[in-house]
Here is the input.
Amino acid sequence: MQRLLGGNSERRKPHLAVFTALVVSSCLLTGLTTTALGQSLPGLTLFSGVKSENQLPFRLDFGGQTNSRDRYILKIPQQKMKLAVAQFAITYPKYYKGSFDPKKIEVRVKGKKVPLSEVKWDKEGRVIEIFPQEPVPAGSRVDLVLSNVQNPSFGGVYYFNCQVLSPGDVPLLRYLGSWILSIS
Here is the structure.
C-alpha cells in the first residue's frame, strides 16, 4: 500500500499541512469578500418585484448588520433626476423596525453637501421628508445620506422607496425608484 501512495507517509505531511492551510485561507478570503461586496451597490436582484430600471443604487457603510449603527448612502443617478426637486420623501415598510436620526440626514449633490431647510421623520407614517433650502437642479447626481441609523434587530430585505416633489408642481409626490436594502 505504501508503494501505491508514493512512499513514506511521513514525508507528505508537511505538504498536506500547506495544502490544508491554503484551502482554509481561500475559503475565508472568499467569504469575507462576498460579505464586503454584498452591502454595496446592488448587483443582480432576482424576483424583487421592482423593475430593474426602478432599482436605485445604495451603500451601507458599516455592513448592514442587525441591531447595530449604520450609515445608509441612498443614491439617485443623474438620469433619474429629470426635473428639479424641492422635496425628497423616503418611505419604508411597516416591518422595518430600525430608527433614524433626522439631525444626521444630509443631501449631497455631486458630492457637495446641500443646505436643508427641514427634515421630518414620521414614525407612524413610515416616511422621511427632506426639504433642501434651494431646489436640487435637474440632471444632478444625488446622494441621500442617513447617518446614525439604528438597524432593526431582525434581518431581512427592506424596500425603501424614493418619491420627489418638483418646485411649482402639483403637490403630489412622484415615484423615482426603490432601494432594496438587505440587513443581515
